[in-house]
Structures are given as structure tokens and as C-alpha cells.
User: Fold these one by one.
Assistant:
Number 1:
Amino acid sequence: MPFELAIALLHYPVYNKHRQVVTTAFTNLDIHDIARTARTFGLSSYYMVTPSIEQLHLIQKIVTHWDKGWGADYNPDRREALSIVKPVLSLYDAVADLEKSKGLPVKLIATGASRRINTISFSALRQKFQVADQQYLLLLGTGWGLADEIFEQADLILEPIQGLSEYNHLPVRSALAIMLDRILGQY
């Protein structure tokens, strides 16, 4: 790949159903399923962003179980997938880690289920990925989506996934799989 792509699942700042900015709790499924999807598509890192020290420690304990503990021998495929999981306190920490790893600036790509102005299509993003020596961080939100401040910081905003009905509330794991297939899948 002439570019580098990583993902960050933000648990803060995100909205709750009352459009209040909150910190959400991580789920075990998000650790495992997103890591497996990211690894399948060749992503370099999967950042789990939460300001909660307790949650960071718990995420790390789960990852360590499958990376170095009993689970590492029991399920080597899971160990490989979880090898890219990086729990961090903030989006800033994720960006700093990614920049440090390759020495290249990081472009942020915000995602969400709502239509916004100035979005980039999946095919246009796929074209941007042809530029060498560029790093991207795809931002996904939990709860009821990323807070507006994240969209304001983003370099790009990816168009939402649209199904066949007005209902549009995909699980973040499913949304990520669809996005990665649309922008990286082999056709």
C-alpha cells in the first residue's frame, strides 16, 4: 500500500441519545471484531480512545490475555488480530503515536450516519489513497456518534452509509466493515 491507514474508535467525545457529550463504555465485541476486520484489510493500528483510566486498563488486560496469556496459544488468529489494538486516552495520543511510527503527518477522516456538507465519497477516498507517503486515521464514534468538535478537526468527512430505508443506525462494527470494503476491497 502506498499509504497507511489506521482506525480510531472514540468513546469520547461522543453523543448520547439526548445529544449530550459523554464518555461511553467499550464493549468486548468492539475489541475483537473491529481488530479482526482491521487486520483483514491490512490496517496498521486500531486505537481505542477513552479518557477512562479504568477502561484503558481493562482493555489492555483483555488484549494481553489474547496476546501473551492463555488465549495466545489457544487462538493464534485472535492474537494476530489483537496485536494492532492500542488503547489510548485521547485522539491526540492516537495521532501522536501514528505520526511517531512513520514520521508522516496524519489526515483525519471523520465518519457518521448523518448527512453533512462537504463529504467525500468512498470512491474519491479510494483515489486519495493512491498518494504515496500519506497516513490516514479513520475516526468512528460510539454512542450516538462523534461530537461536532471531531468533525471540525477532521481533514475529510466520509459520506454516510445509506441503506434502503430511513432507519440508519448500524452497529459500528458493521459500519466499519462496509466502509473498509468500499474503500479497500478488491473488485
Number 2:
Amino acid sequence: MGEFRVAVKAFIIKENKILLIKRRSNDVHKPNAWDIPGGRLALGENPFEGLKRETKEEIGLDIEIIIPVDVHHFIREDEQKITMIIFLCKPLTENIQLSEEHQEYKWIEINSEKREFPEWLYGVVNKVKRYIKLN
């Protein structure tokens, strides 16, 4: 039986565009996959501080966390159970510096076609669009 971990992801939006990052081709779990910044927390780590840390490590940005927008629970290939919390965020800095884990980034219009997003992320995109309309 695999261990349980909490992960956090930053749904970063700026001028109605979402930041996506591409994993390296030698990534163990999802080579060449487009994703959003984030990762697993250390045991006992505060999710807000952990998300700020992960985002800074992966893309060099400081962020403001606005609100949690979704929760996913899944089991990885290595049987590790993950509960992932996705937070709507906005960048506080501009200069993106990718870590060694990633090879590329792009900003995608929030109203782009479904095929432009990772499959798992499209439901989150729709939730964020509804949130933006309400606020």
C-alpha cells in the first residue's frame, strides 16, 4: 500500500491567460506533459507556504494565492495516494525562470479550446471562468 501525500498546484492567471509549464522529456512520471506549477508538500508543511515555495522553485515567480478552486484525489503509478488542492493565483513578479524539471512555458487564453489544455485541467478552467464572472 502506497503512502498518502498532499500536493498543491498554482492556477496562475494574468490578463485572462493561464500559465502552463512543460515537463522535461526525461521526467519519471509524465515526460513532455503540460502542467501547472506545484508539487507535493513536505509532511506537516502549510499548503499556502508550500505552494509559494513550489512555484518559486519551479518557475521563479512570487504569487498571491486567491482561493482554492478544486481538489483532485488520485493514485499515482507508484501507488502513492495524492490529494491535490488547486489554488487560483496571480503573479506578483514577471520574470519566469524554469527549473531543471521543466523545458518550456506558455500563457494560454482562458477561453482557448479544450484541446489546448491538459485533459485533467479543463474542468478547473471552467470553474475559474465561472468564478471570474461572479467577481
